Predict the structure.
Amino acid sequence: MSLQRAMGVSPRESIAAEGCRLSVQAEQHDRAEDRANAFLRLIRRAQRGRLKVYLGYCPGVGKTYQMLQEGHRLKDDGIEVVIGFLETHGRNDIARLAEGLEIIPRKREEYRGILVEEMDTDAILTRKPQVALIDELAHTNAPGSRNPKRYQDIQDVLAAGIHVITTMNVQHLESLYNVVEKAVGVKVRERLPDSVLAEADQIVDVDLTAEDLRRRLEDGKIYPADRIEAALANFFTYSNLEKLRELTLRELASQIDLRRREVSEEETTAAPDQIMVCLSSRGPNSEMLLRYASRLAGKFNRNWYAVYVQTPSEEATVIDAGVQRFISETLTLAKQLGAMVFTYKGDDIADTILRFAKEYRVGHIVIGKPSPKPFWKRFGKNRDIVGDLVKNARGVTVAVLDTAEEAPFAAITRTGAQEANLPGMEATAAIAQPVLLGALLSPQRIVVWDRVVRKETVLRTLAGMAGIDSGLPHPETLFNHIMKREEQGSTFFNEGVAFPHVRASGLASPVVALGITKEGVAGVTTEKPVELVFLIISPAEKPEVQVQVLGLASKAAQDRHLFQSLKSAEKPEEAMEAIRAWELSQR
C-alpha cells in the first residue's frame, strides 16, 4: 500500500483541507509559477525573514536547480535576489542557470594550510537583499567561521529580515541518523536539528523516481565520469534510493501533520501525555534513545523531556572526567533535538523516574534495554530498573528499546493501564485563549544583571518580583520552595538557560519572572554560563499549566534571535519588547 493510501489522503489534499503553510509539490513545470507566487506573497507581508526549503532524498534530484529557477522568477517580479552561496559540484547546467543573478563573493580562509571558501554571512547582512539563495542547509563551516553550521548563519540572515530559500536532503536530519545508517549503511556526518526544518515557512518536496535519478547519474549530470560507476554500485542503488525516498515522504507527512496540529492547538492546551526518555551515564547508545524519543514526540506533537537520574555514586566529585564528558555531550544532544533536559537526584532510579512522570504529566517513558549486570550488582536498589518501572507504572506506556539495534518506530512495549492504541494522544482539553509568554511577563518581573550573580541571589530576587500583584506566598517562603525543588535536581542547564519552577496553591493563573545575567550565574556547574533564568510559578490545582508554560519558555529560549536580543537588552522594557516582537513573528 502506498504512503498516500495508508494516510487516506494525498499531501496536496491535506494542505488544501488544513490550510497549512507547507508546500508539498513535485517538480512539474506547470506548478512552478504557483510556488514562486506563494513565497512571493509571504515575502511581501513579512517583516522578519521567511525560510523556504527545497527538500530532496538524494543529490541530483533537482533541489538547487529549482531554487535558482525560483530566484529568477522572483527577480522578474521585482524582488531583489542574490545568491548567498551556491555549490555547483561542477555541473554546467547549474552554473548557466545562476547567470543573471547577483552573487555574493565567498569568504576565503586558511585552515591547516588549506584555503577554504565559505559563505560570507557578514557580506549578506551588509548587502541586505530581500531574498538570499543559500545552498546546502546542513553544511558544516570551517573552524573559525562566524558560526559552526550554515543553518546558524541562515538564522542570522533571517533575523536581519532577509528571506532565505535553501536546499537540503532528508538524511541530514539529526533524528534520522540511526534510521539512515541502518537503511543505507551510511553514517551521515553533517546533521542539523529537526527543529530547523520544522520552523520553515514552506517546504517543497523535490521528487524524482529512482530510475530517472540513476539515468541522470549515468548521463554525467550529477557526478564527474570517474565517480559514476562507484556511485551506481554503492549509494545510488535502487534499494537505497527507494528507502530514502520513502523517508522523505514520511517526513513530509509528519511536517503536514505537525502544522495541522499547531493550527488546531491554537485553541487547546497540551494533553496530559508528554514523553520522557531516561538517560544513563553508562547506557549503550543513548543517542539512539534520544532520536527515537524525538521522532515519537514529533509524530504526536508533544513536549518531551530527557531525564538523567544522578545517584549518590554518580556525584560530580565521584565519577571520572570521561563519564562527566559523556553525560554532558548526551544532554547537549538532547537539547539540540528539542528536549527539555533535567538532572534529578535520587538513590532509587525507577522511583525517581515515576515521580518525575507524575509531576510533568508524562504518559510515555522511553528507556533502553539493560545490559547484563555483574553478579554483585544483582542485589539491592536499582538491580532491575525496567522491571520496577513496568511493575509500578500506572497509566503510563513504557517503551523499552534494544539500543544494540535500530528499533522499528512503531514497535514499543506497553505496560500499566494502557491499551494498544496509545491513549491520550488525540485528547485535548479546551481553554479559552492560547497562552503567550508575553502575557505572563511584565517589565516589573524582569531584572537585568550586568555582573556575575549568585544562584541564590537570582532565585530570591525573581521570587520577590514574581510575587508583585499575584497573590503568591511571601517571597522568602516562595524562595524556600524553589530551593527545595532545586535540591531534587538543578534546573540550571548547560545551554545557557535555566527554568526553575514550582506550583503554588490558590494561584489563579501562571506567573513568570525573567532574569538576564550578562556575566553568568555563580555557584552553578555548567560549561556554558547561564544567561537567562525563567522562573515559572503555576497553579497547583492545574498541573497541565506547568507543562504548557515550560514548553513556551523552552521554545523561546531555543530561538537564536530572541536569545541574542534578550542577552543584549539593557533594560527590562527592551527585553519585554523583544519577547513581544518574537511572538508576533511566530504568528
Observations:
- The chain has three domains: 11-261, 269-430, 437-585.
- Residues 269-430 form a domain with the Rossmann fold fold (CATH 3.40.50.620).
- The first strand starts at residue 51 and ends at 56.
